[in-house]
User: What shape does this take?
Amino acid sequence: MGEDRVVNLFVVPTLGPLHLSHPRYNAVTLVELTSAYRPDAVLLASYSEEGLRQGLWREAEELGLFHLLPWAERAGVRVEAIGERAEELKAEAERFRDYLEQMEQGRRYLEEEAEAQRELFSWLEAPLSPESWRAEEPLGALKRYLEWVAARFGEGPATGFRKERMREVARRIRALPPGRYAVWVDLLDLPDLLAELPEAELPGPHEPTEAERARAVLDRAWRLEEGDDLFRLLEQLREIGGAEAGYLASQLYLAAGQVEDAALLLEQVAEGDFHHPEYLPGYVLARLGQLRDLLGERERALRAYRGVLALSWAPKEAREIAQAGLRTPFRIG
Assistant: This one.
């Protein structure tokens, strides 16, 4: 896009929790791409100001925002959510599917939709990189799925009023003062936004930074699979260092049955600054409670569980672990 344009746009597709599965397109990649673009502001097309303020993106596991918001604060870059009523309208799609679930014919429609999703999922399960969005696929598979939904159910509640929302987002963007804007948009909203803003630039070839490579290792530790080389992963986590790497290393020790080593390491993490990313404190304290229970330290375990529930926000899984731990001491098997 030429520098003589009044408004320069750089669109960054987001994958929510799916970033965990893409080492070359992880949550930190989004921030690195945005930083390299040097925007005057970052615009969130799929969230409203109220949703951003209330942190509704956290429960949606929008992993990129856990990293974008601290970066923007440090860099002095404004983040503005411009998807007016986004959460309210997207909730219509969830209610629509809940309604279909209650009827036999509706359940058949949902089975057809699952089949229509199959091609898209096959693309999203393949390794993605920033330049993937400039290729014919997976964007073509995404468009075909969205066209199927619109043809079967119509535009409106079934689609979360997607076209209407992206049309309004584009209108707001065109009304902006001259500048460079990075636009973060949910994957499912991407085709409709690009249709409204055909001049927008998409990510191109990008050499991963050290921060991205570290994030890829951390993500791998979060989603351990059978057959993973735990010793090699533990070495990589030690090289990365920091609270999140320490927490994940403790998880590896626990997976290997080394409860005391896991507890010792996690105690060290808890004695330092473990407040970033924002999801980490809840997980650290919840697991610390469980490890203390396994070591017979019930009173200390209770303090850790209560610590989870005292946080202003903690992931749902961490809250559930803490609530269960308060009722009954944690045991394995």
About this structure: The mean pLDDT is 95. The CA atoms of residues 23 and 216 lie 5 Å apart. The beta strands are 7-14, 41-44, 78-81, 179-186.
